[in-house]
Amino acid sequence: MSIALSNVAPNGSKVQQNGTSQQQQKSQLPNPFELDDYHILNKVYLTHVNDDEKYDKDVLFNLVSSIISASSAQISGTNHTQISFKPDFPALKRISCQMITTRGKAECAHQTTMWILQHLRGFSWDAKALITLAAFSLEYGEFMLLYRIQPSDTLGNTLKQLNQVQFRKVPSDIADIVAFLLQVFQHIIQWATWSAMGYDLEEVHSLSDAMQEIPLVVYWIVATIVACSGNLVGVSEHILSDYIKRLSGVVMRLKDHLENSKVQIERIDDYNKRLKDSENIKGVVGFLRLLIQGNGSDQLPLIYKGNIQVKTGLDVFKQNYVLLFISGLDSIGDEILLLNSIYNRLQDNPQEVIKGFKKEDFKILWIPIVDTWDEVAKNQFRILKESMKWYVLEYFSELPGLGIIKNRLNYVDNKPIVSVISPQGEIMNENAMEIIFQWGFDAFPFRKIDGDDLFKKWAWFWNLMKKVDINIEDVKRDSYIFIYGGNDPKWIQDFTRAIGSIQKNQSIKNVDVNIDYYQLGKHNPAKIPYFWIGIDGRKQNKTCQDRVDCEIQEAVKSLLCLKQDPLGWVLLSKGYHVTLLGHGEPMYQTVADFEKWKDNVVEKESFDIAFKEYYNTKLKELSSSASCAVNSSDVLATITCPNPTCGRVMEVTSVNYKCCHRDDQNSCCI
Q: pTM for the whole thing?
């Protein structure tokens, strides 16, 4: 017994002819136009098992494109190469038959669409769409071929009459619709191609967003094809514009995600190219170009120093060491003050050579990193630029080399960094910010080893201090610390009162300077001898092992020399960085005269530099006013020979004098 195609349900079972049963079945089918995207997506995704079924995409796409564009010639077995491809004709014909036998309303189109998706559950998403389009092309291609048949073709005209081509009410816009479907398929192919290239979805997150739309796009492509098939053979009269409208909405979202994906992929490809180029960098200018100069017609970076644009651009840094200050726009006031003080030190005696590096060979460049350069950000940038004495990059777009900055220089979470780049374009220090904050200009030229050496130079001292006074445990990096002691109670009292007055001074509060002070042994005087014994224990009579060891020995000698000051001694430190060892009287006069030099704190942009300059002035005054004339008769006594048989006055053969007080300003100071 044969079964008519019109009586076959999508699952292949025979449908009962009873009208009530058909009506009940249809009432249970959902109308896709009454379903939101979430419900459709959920239903469609359940049909997708895996995508390991193979199909000949290129062959199938070329054939379908030729049919839809109506550009293929009449088929001739003798003039065309025979191509075998998957899926084969029976598989395509089965889907085609299912579509052309789908009658009725949108509910029926939905049922057939779900059947096709279930039938193609082992294929990829692009395969589902293309195979369905190929199955439709069997019927559509035959219709187009017969519609254009020549009168002289007897067999063709016979088939044309048999297919009743001339009587069919085919929508006039069906050609445009199927052409649109082919364009939509191209978007799916683009997504599939990029997805297969192995990009990290954390970096190309729009590909993941596009994936959310792909099942919906495929569903509405298949549903539209089902509706077109029914209208083409005359078993239905679907309003195709409703399908296109629903499909277009999803496609618009997909296109947006793909456009964003393209930008993200181009950024990754550009980064990979820059990363490869960074292996063969020739000079610091080449390195800077990798970071801030785009390709093609991208805007050129502008370099400013103050309000003056540097005409030579990045070439101004040629053959120089560059301190790259990289930051956002917020909360960088402390960093600017610090780098301004570094800049001032670089300009002071620029010919000076320190550790083999000439100061004038170093330049500072600020590279601001901003997510969105709106007018607020631009105005904030201009205000900050006014406070900087060094070079500034103006580039109101995302930096082309942002990936290099983040991955090679470890710029993360908008935390400011200072990278040191050599004239050869080599990274001497990814981030010197920490050692600059801790050690200031003494860390020049700001390599990691320079910070390590400074830490070694004073680590022993702080370890000793913590053993003597537990109150010194919590040393803050940005605080200025005075540690002092001595044998004169009045001097200690006067100095304590004077330094306390500075701590409370409004000028100090205005510039956000933190000052702490500790009197050695105040709470436990018995610890004082242990401190000086510890200092003395660091003294060596043998030759220094290296530069750091020599610097440690110089510091030990300076401290032991200060111990002999009859008034007292003072150590000034910023965090763990000891910046000054000084004698009692000039130290007291410096803190007592704070009102005379307080403005220099702002001008020098550093409390310790301003303090040290005034201290050296007072030290020089006190040293020059002290008389160094010595009458030998005042110090040389006549001594008789201790031998009882002699008793004569002994002859003075030599006198040796050594200054260990403040008359030599270099003897006890660092």
A: 0.67
Cis-peptide into 423, omega within 30 deg: no
> CA nearest 25: which of 41, 35, 40, 14?
14
Cα distance between residue 493 and residue 566, in whole Å: 15
Cα–Cα dist 214/205, whole Å: 15
- Nearest-angstrom CA–CA distance, 85 and 378: 59
Q: What is the pLDDT of residues 159-176, one digit of tens each?
A: 777 776 776 766 677 888
Biggest CA–CA distance in the chain, Å, is 160
pLDDT at 282: 84
Which amino acid, 136? F
Sheet containing strand 302-305, strands side by side: 308-309, 302-305, 391-394, 362-368, 321-327, 417-421, 427-429
Token pair in block for residue 301? 């970076």
Which two three-digit tokens encode residue 537?
A: 């224990």
Question: End-to-end alpha-carbon separation of the chain, Å?
Answer: 111
Contact criterion met (CB below 8 Å) for 444 and 339: no
Write the pLDDT tens digit of every residue in 306-331. 889 999 999 999 999 999 999 999 99
> How far, in Å, are 74, 443, 452, 574 from residue 439 at the CA level?
85, 6, 10, 8
- Residue corresponding to tokens 């009292």: 493
Strands (E), 11-168: none
CA–CA gap between residue 565 and residue 515 (Å, rounded): 24
560 CB-contact burial (10 Å; exposed 0-12 / middle 13-18 / buried 19+): middle
Question: Over the range 162-201, which residues count as b (16 or more CB within 10 Å of their CB) and which as e?
Answer: ebebeeeebbeebeebbebbbebbebbebbbebbeeebee
36: number of Cβ within 10 Å? 7
More confidently predicted of 104 and 335? 335
Torsions phi, psi for 485 (to 5 deg) = -170, 180
Q: How far, in Å, CA of 468 to CA of 464, rounded? A: 6
Tokens of 357: 């590096």
Tokens 């136009």 label which residue? Answer: 33
Q: Which helix (H) or strand (E) holds 401?
A: none
Q: How confident is the model at residue 651 (pLDDT cuts 50, 70, 90)?
A: low
Half-sphere exposure of 45 (CA within 13 A, CB side): 12
Cα–Cα distance measured from residue 584 to residue 192, given in angstroms and rounded to the nearest whole number: 78
